[in-house]
Amino acid sequence: MLNNIGLPGLLLIAVVVLVLFGRGKISSLMGEVGKGITSFKKGVADGAKDDEADPALADTSAARDVTPEAEKDKV
């Protein structure tokens, strides 16, 4: 169904969206989307930096038992 949408169809959709929401609302929405993408990329980079800084977090090959000693005997 969507295979038949070409350039004229996309332009028509863009014009309808622009008329419905207005230029100011669309530009502010795109600004917020850009801020969100930037924040996401920064968070991913900070997470990778934290993993490199703490070798215990970076080594996921060996699992550690963190159960308190008092709880280990209980079944």
Describe this structure in words.
The protein has a domain at 22-54. The chain has helices at residues 7-21, 23-53, 55-58, 69-72. It is built from four helices and no strands. The chain is elongated and about 70 Å long. The chain is an all-alpha fold and 75 residues long. The N and C termini lie far apart (58 Å). The model has no long low-confidence stretch (mean pLDDT 82).
Write the layout of secondary structure elements.
Elements: H1 7-21, H2 23-53, H3 55-58, H4 69-72
What's the short version?
The chain crosses the membrane at residues 6-22. GO terms for molecular function: protein transmembrane transporter activity. With 75 residues, the protein is mostly helical.
Shape: elongated
- Helical coverage, percent range: over 70%
**Ranges with pLDDT <50 over ≥5 residues?**
none
Main sheet, how many strands, which sense, barrel? Answer: none
Would you report the number of β strands?
A: 0
Radius of gyration based on Cα positions: 25 Å
Instruction: Provide the β-strand percentage band.
Output: under 5%
Family: Belongs to the TatA/E family.
Pfam family, one: TatA_B_E
InterPro entries: TatA/B/E (IPR003369), TatA/E (IPR006312)
Biased composition (Basic and acidic residues): 66-75
